[in-house]
Amino acid sequence: MHNEPIERWIHDHTFGQDRTTGGERRTVIVIGITAVTMVVEIAAGLLFGSMALLADGLHMGSHAVALTITAFAYFYTRRHASDGRFNFGTGKINSLAGFASAVLLVVFAFVMAAESIRRMLSPVAIEFNMAILVALLGLAVNGVSLLVLKGGRRGQKKGDGAHGHHHSFRADHNLWSAYLHVLADALTSLLAVFALIAGKYFGQGWLDPLMGIVGAVLVTRWSWVLIKRSAHVLLDMQAPEALRAEVTEAVERVDGNRVADQHIWSVGPGIYAVELAVVTRNPRPPESYWDLLPRDLGLVHLTVEVHAHTDHSAGKGRADLTATDKEETGKAS
Length: 333
Hints:
The protein is an alpha+beta fold. The chain has helices at 22-48, 51-79, 92-121, 128-150, 173-202, 207-234, 241-251, 286-292, 323-329, and strands at 258-268, 271-280, 299-309, 314-322. It folds into 2 domains: 7-234, Cation efflux protein transmembrane domain (Alpha-lytic protease prodomain-like); 241-329, Alpha-Beta Plaits, CATH 3.30.70. The chain starts with 21 loop residues before the first helix and ends with a helix.
């Protein structure tokens, strides 16, 4: 028995995390756009003596650093996808990076609010023409970056982690955090343009710091949503109720099966591991339970515990099967 080959039952837990995703590619493009803008603004600020351009160039630099953290998380996920120290692959690094970025956004929002309050109490002179130019330039750059980051929301391939209606743009917490960073910057620029125009033509200079407070409140709200969703993954909390209901319904559809226990949790963007305890009068091999599940749920690892229920006796068996194994072998494990 000990000499029998078991290779057919051995599987990895990369679950596609070893491949470059669309989110990573788009993040790198946005880093390039941001870096070029940073260099141009700093050079122009030094050449023309504009502190506004110089300050915004340095701000773009901090923006590029934040996005680089996002790109590094993608790289680390790919590089260590096959590392056996990670029980279910490196997919949760995505949520960890998203969580950290969201916390940084909250800090940024508080700093922005504090500075706005300071300026309301102690107004400073504003060079409206140059400030409006810088705000419009920032808005244009951030607008392009938002389009690039959101470009993969539609038409995703399965290799990029898309799994039907259960996967969305926000399932990739790392990409979502990058999007929020750019969106926060775009919002700041948009509110600044509105406030600066009102200040220049209508003398409503107080709108500038007020819009800073409004932007800080919105950024905090967006960040809090990301913090909660990424923490949900990091703490191995149950998958959405709709997904769990579909799994239960699919298993209980035949043989009078009953799901006695169910655990479904995220192990990466839009992908889930499943543990089921099934009570049935007609026990079947573990792969048959995998065959019952819909293919668009993003399930990549299935563990089934089968309890045979009869009038006079009860038995129990346990088996482990992954979606990857089933798709590769095309036969019972």
